[in-house]
Amino acid sequence: EAHGAGGNQYCFDTPALNATVLRRQALEHALRGALERGEFVLHYQPRVSLKDGAIVGLEALLRWQHPELGLVPPLQFIPLAEETGLIVPVGEWVIGAACRQIRCWRERGLAVPPVAINLSARQFRSGELHGTIAAALAAEGLEGAQLELEITESTTMADVEEAVATMRKLKALGVSLALDDFGTGYSSLAYLKRFPIDYLKIDRAFVRDVVTEPDDAAICIATIRLAHSLRLKVIAEGVESEAQMEYLRRQGCDEIQGFYFSRPVEGEALAVMLGDGARMALAAFADGAPPP
Ligand code: C2E
Ligand code: MG
Ligand code: MG
Ligand code: MG
């Protein structure tokens, strides 16, 4: 509870709140040193084509391995990194690390599909992003088409004109753009039309009950139609079951990502998957799959 202590001063003495504040302060402090201590690592989750089950992309997902706090999930530290501005150097590390990983995989003779990197709002608006990506690509000798950038609707909303200009500039590097978590933000269809994007990612919130909830099914179907009408590809995220996959495939969804095919894994495990030319080992793709 908060006690009025005169004027606008309040003294919060709820233990839970204090614990939250303490954890937050501890996290912020730890986060500041995490880059120097090398505590960040990227995991990669493949996404597969619903045409033939081939791996057509990877998403880099940031993990923070703290010695005492353990594995801190991104949703616990990315908002904090965003508020404190630490997301800019952390995001720069992500871009560099992903590009180094791609070059390492390639040096081992692996065919590496495009790797998607998540951008936070602050990073997107920082003005340094274009230069950071160009430098990372050049440092590892990669072409822009090797990267995809994922942005969310809320990232684009503060200033739509500026967002469109930033997207165009990034696209000129040869990278693809995806609108992540589609349907959970506030962007209007008028903006969507203007964004030079290549993919819509249907948020996992709509995929979870797509087979059993007619409302979720309606949203997924409408999103797939909308995307195709705008000449965009659609990726469904959070696909965990064969039933979800089959349903989305029948509705014309292009690609899926989710635990059903693979969780996010370390670079080494991903290399094994790429080396195997892993495809979904499914009846759906076993016979009658269209030739490449
Ligand atoms: P996102 O970009 O929408 O990433 C998808 C999230 O769904 C990931 O969570 C992934 O592990 C999880 N996921 C994938 N398939 C399934 C599934 O079948 N079932 C379930 N239950 N979950 C699934 P994760 O790795 O915890 O990341 C959460 C969010 O943190 C990401 O959501 C993204 O917004 C953010 N994030 C992750 N890495 C970065 C990064 O390098 N930079 C920034 N700015 N944000 C990042
Ligand atoms: Mg994403
Ligand atoms: Mg997403
Ligand atoms: Mg999501």
TrEMBL record:
<feature type="domain" description="EAL">
    <location>
        <begin position="24"/>
        <end position="278"/>
    </location>
</feature>
<protein>
    <submittedName>
        <fullName>EAL domain-containing protein</fullName>
    </submittedName>
</protein>
